[in-house]
Amino acid sequence: MAGPAELSPAKAVLLAARFTADSNILALQALATLHQDTLRLRLILRLLLTFLPESTHPSLYVPFVQELASGSFARDDAIAELDCSSVEDLTDAEARKRVRKLHLVDLYAPPIDLQPVSDDITLFLIDRAHRVDEQTGLLTLLPQLVVPFLDHSEYLRSWFISTVLPLLRFSYEYYPQEGAIFSLAAFEGLGEQAGVGVLLSRSGSVGNDEVGGIARVGRDLRGLVGPWMYGDTRSKRRKLSGELSSGSLPSIHAVEMTKQEAPGSAWSYVFQWIVEMAATEFPVVVEAIEQWDGPEDVDMGGYAGNHSHVDEDLLALVERQYAQSAIAATLATADTSAETFRGIQRILVRIASLMDIESPQSDLASSAPLLPDMGPTLGISTSISLPHLSRSNLLQIDNPVTTPTESLLSLLNALTLSASILEKLGHGLPLVRVAELYLFGNVEDQRGVLKRILHGTSGSPRRDERTWRRLRHEIMWLWGWGADSKKANDNGRQDELGVLGKVGHEVLEIEMLKAMLNDTCCDLVAELYINVSDAERPATMAEIEKVVVESAMTSYDNASNGNKTRGGIKRASEAIATLYPNGIPKSNAVQRAEKLIAATHALSFYSLTLHHGVPFQPVNIRAHQDPIALLGKVLEQNPKSYTKLDDLLDIGRNLVDAGLPIIKHDGAVVGNSLTEQQLVQNAERRVTGMAIEAALAEDDFETAYSYVINRLVPPMPTASQTHLSSGCSAQDFSRNSDRQLDDVSWRAAFQAGRYRSANRPRPTASSTANPEIRHLEMRMELLAQSLLLAPAAALPEVLGVWRRSEEELNVLVAQESEEEQKWDDKGDKRVPGQFVSSSTTPIAKREGRANLKSGEEAPMGLFDVARGAAFALSKSAFPVGGTVVADKLQSSTKHKRVVGGPSVPSGDSGEADGDGRVRKRDTVSNMVAGGLASGIGWVLGMYLISPPDNTPAIRDERLTLTHTHTHTLGATPVHHHHHHHRPGEE
């Protein structure tokens, strides 16, 4: 039997395969020592790859591989104990045949994508590592397999650090709870961008380990991404794979050239990840930049030795790109929280430290008075355009808005502080938007931001004066970044100003004034804008007054209640009072505003609801086409409110003085040609007429009668308007001028004159007269007043009601006389021994009539009404011609008719003629056409002093009126058409 040393080459290979399959490394080592010519290095490595179980611990065969790598075999006593029985019985031919059937694995065969370099040991170790991982998943065995050979090959070192180390740390050290999710082959096959994404996929999530949270992102960049980028092996492997596919074998020189062709290209994916992460998880980016010093800061686990993993020139480039990505991250985030702006400032300070430039100093928590003066030294490249701020362009190497320079960091620091202040003021903007506002925003853009800051959102709490002082200081800082506001504005140094610097200084002050007034900080407004000298006043007084009035009207329109002690009306009142605190003469606009507020406040004490149950609001007054008409609704909806006529008249006057227009249905404004006094008079008559109608609607005839007699007095013309040469009467004047707007007064008097109460008139304590006669006489007196107020076209209708009332009065008087006669006759017959005397009846009648009218006036006839009105008018309005007019009117009273004795005294004339007086109600029936023309003709529109008879129009008018009154005095009614009366009216 032959010994181990005498075995044929074929049998030696078969025996080596047996020892390898049995993991008998010592026997294999001894056999290799005996047959060094046969069992060469490559063959042994192929036998190990083919037959050695992957579960074999590396400590069993790594020493043997080390001996193979060194080329020295140590002698061992095991050589004598080699068991050759498995091949002893084989012939050489059989042994060679079996060797051909071994199918040994080639060192250059898949699955590895890195094909052989010039070192078989390196390729064996890489192939063995892949097989161990694929067959057993025992990734933790690979360091024991590869680490002993790191000094053997730089390529092996680079492969281990960039592939095995990151995967091992990711799966078993940093995130052991997840386990291995990638095989070595799959992980190695990842591209640069995918590999970066995988390694940093858990950096922003909160784990259960002690590191937990975002604090581990720096560790991951240092311990995972840094090794992954070791030597830029991604680009090298891509090049190697391309060369292998063409059938050529890459050389070390080719690998080195590949690394030079794409310097730092793999790091660009890391920088891109930083920018993308900033858009969604900005706190992670802040921690990453603060914890990681950049591409130079890599944790190799001690496996790199003294070898530099990055070239010095390449390192400078990627360090600059890292700083650029950090600046880009500040512009990529869309978050506007205070924490984000603090993180941005931390990044700026960190970048300044890494680039060895002066660090920007400012504290975002500084109070308003301590805000820094940025000054005019914030230089920025004039070549900046809006696309430079686009996220896709932030990492361009020549982008001026991300190139780390001292001036850029100072500008970004000022913009960050501005963004922080905007966030405190409730108008947070991302830093990139603040940069756009500063660099490319126009006046309207910046003014819009200012308005949103000042006026805030609806429902925001009102700011007190202390808050406003701080707010004003912060806004002024945003405008000028600490520069002197007036000096900068006067010099036009807009380049020195801040993010609101394009807004004019006066515009800025006016907008703040509006906001202060809206928050009712009137004392502060007076302090800053009113009670200061013209030199110190931020804007002109005229502009300030305009703003105050507009603000007051805005508060007025937004008010829900008209009471000036609360709500919007209170704010409006306080704003108006701010302008003239020391009794300075007020402008017309201010006076109108005060009158409007006074009227609205007075209206607030009444219940008022508009159409469809909509409650009244102050803005309805300004929006209403006829504000005076609202008083009619007040009278309708508030019982007994007509008794507060003086209050209602004050409201009406204030509405007129407030300058509110009265608009017709066609859109024309009423009263443009009237004086303010005429407008007030018309409003007073309208309000009085409404009150009269309301009193009648509530069956209060006495109050309506009082208002007509005492309030609806015909307007008296002025001296210039009574010139006799004008040929115009006082009645013509009142109808042609003051009654252009008034169509209510005469109708109110007419309505009261024809009013019939649903209840029977009751006697009063001050009068013993018949209540029905007294009521009818009062109505006729109201109709007489209506004649003085009504236009000419309405006189026939009034006279018709007068005639019917007079007929009714005659009937009542006749009934009363008949009842008196019966009473007297009955009394005479009951007295014993009395004889009836012919003179008794007239005396009794005369005394009874005197008692009846002891405190009352006799019923007035139409003529007496006209005569009394003309006489009173002549004494005040026509001092020169008054005697003539009175004589004309009184001359018609000389016709007397005695009815059974002396008549009842006339309350107006007071003149005696013989033994008795002519009753008023008898005079109308005795009138003739001539008496009408000279006595009451002026009531119908005739002239007090007759013009020349050759005027056709006047002559025709006289004839027409004479014919009209002739029919009035006869039995034929004035109107032949039917009248529709409301209940209680004629």
UniProtKB/TrEMBL annotation:
It holds the Pfam family Sec39. The keyword Transport applies. Residues 899-909 have a biased composition (Low complexity). Residues 13-823 form the Sec39 domain. GO terms for cellular component: endoplasmic reticulum. InterPro entries: Sec39_domain. GO terms for biological process: protein transport; retrograde vesicle-mediated transport, Golgi to endoplasmic reticulum. Residues 820-842, 889-922 are annotated as: Disordered. It is found in: Endoplasmic reticulum. Keywords: Endoplasmic reticulum, Protein transport, Transport. Its main location: endoplasmic reticulum. This is Sec39 domain-containing protein. The lineage of its organism: Eukaryota, Fungi, Dikarya, Ascomycota, Pezizomycotina.
